[in-house]
Amino acid sequence: MRVLKQLGWVLLCLLVLSRPVKADTAAIYEEQWQASGVDELWEQLPEDTRRLLGSMGMSRDDLQAATVNPSGLAVTLIELLKNQIGSVLPGVGVLLGMLVLTTVVKSGGPTDGADGTARLFGVVSAAGIAVTVLAPLAGCMRAVGEAADSAWVFMTGFVPLYAAVLLSEGKTALAGGLSTTLFASGEAVCTLISRVVIPLLSVSLGMGAAGTLAQKSRLQSLSQTVSKVTVRLLTAATALFGGVLSLQTAVAAASDSVGLRAAKLSVSRLVPVVGGTLSETLAAVMGCLGVLRSAMGVFGVAAVAALLLPTVFRCVAWSAALWIGKSAAEALDLPAAVGLLEMSQGIVKAAIGALLSCGVLLIVGVALVMKGGSG
Amino acid sequence: MTTGLWGALIVAAFLALLLRRERPELALGIGLSAGVGAAVFWFRQLKPVVDTATLWFGRAGLDATVAGVLFKSLGLCLLAQFCVNVCRDAGEQGLAAHAELAGKSAILLTALPLFRQLLDLAIVLIKGGDG
């Protein structure tokens, strides 16, 4: 009887003192964030990229918030474009100066066809323009290759972490798909860009440079063909890998969604008494993991964009500079310079296309997984 | 100054025309002397233009080699053409061809650093190296 009384008191105390158990989502999220290793990934980013992300409103301390300040982003992009245009402007000045110099010299010199020396002088002036234009473009090509490499190096660190978060969420199919398809397609496209496309474009530029010395040769048209083929190859590769990635993500997301609902239902139905509470706790943990996945995704997309955008803007500024130069050369009636500048602009456009393909594939890949994971 | 040169050239041409039938060698001498004088005058006039252009391109960051090669090539080109014209006037087509060849060689030699720079650039781009 006494034992029953004591048991009754204990039950009463439990009823009075007990509160509904709620999962502390903030603590869970913090713990999951620390375990994810994203902070280390932030540290591995180049200093310039971190500064750029910082000006977009993303810093190491509030990385978990995963927000990008839209006005800050717009200001940053405009500032970045202005900086790149500012760095290219002296080159434009030199190019225009060179064109004017060539025109002045040509008009003051012997008329075309007067004798062989006049034709030779035309070759010398074209070589002068080529040296003025191609030296900075060679640096631009190197920067494109390095940007694609950096984006891929970042993804090699990011994809396993992201896949681990998906795996923790129980999205095994999506995690597997991400770590295989995105990894394979990203590596294929980035390697294609840095090992095949950029060397091919550089060779085209080199052939164009050599073509200025032999103006009757077809080297410049050959280099234009090479850049066109390169762009088509890259477009096809991006479309192929993008297609495979979206298909696989869609299928994996559907499969994971069914599996997760089944797990929640099983916990709720099969575990006696506390099954419902456990199911809710599981939902809270899953929710935190979902927020973590989204935050990581936003960080990944922003980091890839910040790694590629400066070089894209640099190429855009150079493309505009070459277009201005080409228009000036047309106005000044310098056909050799027009050919060279047109060829160079084609190559720079191809480099922009290459970088955008790389960025679009990586960003769309991460965005697809983010969207697929929320299903 | 320039009007004086034009006057001198007209007088020289008139004299050469008068003497061509009786003393063709003297007519050639007069033509040659007038031509050389005109060329010297023209080059002296051109010097401040070249100096200003070189200064301007230096300020714009243009490689001094490129501007230097261009101006030197222009000078050589004009000299060669002058020489070729004199030879043709004298009826010496063979000598004119030699003068042209010499002019081409001189321009090629002068532009050699520029061509080397361009080919180095092409090789660096084709090899994909850092230069």
Percent range for β-strand residues of chain A: under 5%
**What's the mean pLDDT score of chain A?**
74
The end-to-end span of chain A amounts to 56 Å
Oligomeric state as shown:
heterodimer
Helix content of chain A: over 70%
Summarize the structure in short.
The complex is a heterodimer of chains A (375) and B (131). Chain A is mostly helical and 375 residues long.
Describe this structure in words.
The complex is a heterodimer of chains A (375) and B (131). Chain A has ten helices and no strands. The model of chain A has no long low-confidence stretch (mean pLDDT 74). With 375 residues, chain A is mostly helical. Chain A has helices spanning 2-17, 25-36, 38-44, 47-55, 70-108, 116-168, 172-213, 219-270, 275-331, 335-373. The longest helix of chain B has 36 residues, at 24-59. Chain B is built from four helices and no strands. The N and C termini of chain B lie far apart (51 Å). Chain B has helices at 2-19, 24-59, 64-89, 93-127. The A-B interface holds A 90, 93-94, 97-98, 101-102, 104-105, 108-110, 114-118, 120-121, 124-125, 127-128, 130-132, 134-135, 138, 141-142, 198-199, 202-203, 205-207, 209-210, 212-213 and B 46, 53, 56-57, 60-63, 66-67, 69-71, 73-74, 76-78, 80-81, 84, 100, 103-104, 107-108, 111, 114-115, 117-119, 121-126, 128, 130-131.
List the helices and strands and how they pair.
The complex is a heterodimer of chains A (375) and B (131).
Chain A: H1 2-17, H2 25-36, H3 38-44, H4 47-55, H5 70-108, H6 116-168, H7 172-213, H8 219-270, H9 275-331, H10 335-373
Helix pairs in contact in A: 2-9, 4-9, 5-6, 5-9, 6-7, 6-9, 6-10, 7-8, 7-10, 8-9, 8-10, 9-10
Chain B: H1 2-19, H2 24-59, H3 64-89, H4 93-127
Helix pairs in contact in B: 1-2, 2-3, 3-4
